[in-house]
Amino acid sequence: MSDSDGAAIGVIGGSGFYSLLDGITEVAVDTPYGAPSDKLLIGELAGRRVAFLPRHGRSHSLPPHRINYRANLWALRAVGVRQVVAPCATGGLRPEFGPGTLVVPDQLVDRTYGREQTFYDGEPRADGLRPNVVHIPLADPYCPAGRQQAVAVARRAGWEPQDGGTLVVIQGPRFSTRAESRWHAAQGWSVVGMTGYPEATLARELGLCYTSIAMVTDLDAGVEVGEGVTHEEVLKVFSENIERLRTVILDLVTELPAERNCLCSKALDGVDTGLLLP
Ligand SMILES: [Zn+2]
């Protein structure tokens, strides 16, 4: 791969953002874990090389539990990405976190199951490499530098974000029951989504920065008064806010620090992974 095909920054999700890139190319990446959700769309934005990856595929055909998260993160790293920005749609777990609220979470709770969530599973890969047992720290799952910049960019756009909060990731594809939702809220968690895990931990396992930007599309079932969230409501709020979300994501992409000095960049220092990371 030549330099002109690569990118330093990756955005997972954000369909419809590609038209703003210059000199866009589609790059198919194969990985030791299979194919990512789709081809990467790589181009230039204000002098920064950016790769977009539609999380659910361009035809939105992959439900959250069927996404090949390992292939997605590996493919991004393979084209040179070291910083990942990950917008996602979420349900609000507090009455004040209504539709249109922007949350830049600083904590994560995993309530998924059965997903491939590590590169270091001790299993030999098809290429003969066998990963070592690696225990990656995830006390602070998000890049502190990316978070700080995301908050600043949203604020400047006049979209006062929640600076911090806990994203609980459920298996889906169904939404929560009221009892589950009330339980999540009672823990003090902020928003609920379906894709933030294992994305965050896989990014850390590859030494990538990962910044989550959670947009609230609905009040979750235990918080709202009514029939419960529907997919139509989610799509409606998403389309109403897509323009300003686009502005925030694109500003963030162009303003991420060029030099990394965060804990994510040092996650693999002194670690023998047994793998050859691209
Ligand atoms: Zn970082």
TrEMBL record:
It catalyses: a purine D-ribonucleoside + phosphate = a purine nucleobase + alpha-D-ribose 1-phosphate. The record marks S176, H231 as: Important for substrate specificity. It comes from the Bacteria. SUPFAM superfamilies: Purine and uridine phosphorylases. One of its GO terms (cellular component) is cytosol. InterPro entries: MTAP (IPR010044), Nucleoside_phosphorylase_d (IPR000845), Nucleoside_phosphorylase_sf (IPR035994). Its EC number is 2.4.2.1. One of its GO terms (biological process) is purine ribonucleoside salvage. Gene3D superfamilies: Nucleoside phosphorylase domain. Keywords: Glycosyltransferase, Purine salvage, Transferase. The keyword Metal-binding does not apply. The keyword Transferase applies. Substrate binds at M194, D218, L219, D220. Pathway: Purine metabolism; purine nucleoside salvage. Residues 9-253 form the Nucleoside phosphorylase domain. GO terms for molecular function: S-methyl-5-thioadenosine phosphorylase activity. PANTHER family: S-METHYL-5'-THIOADENOSINE PHOSPHORYLASE (PTHR42679:SF2). Belongs to the PNP/MTAP phosphorylase family. MTAP subfamily. Purine nucleoside phosphorylase involved in purine salvage. This is Purine nucleoside phosphorylase. It comes from Kitasatospora griseola (Streptomyces griseolosporeus).
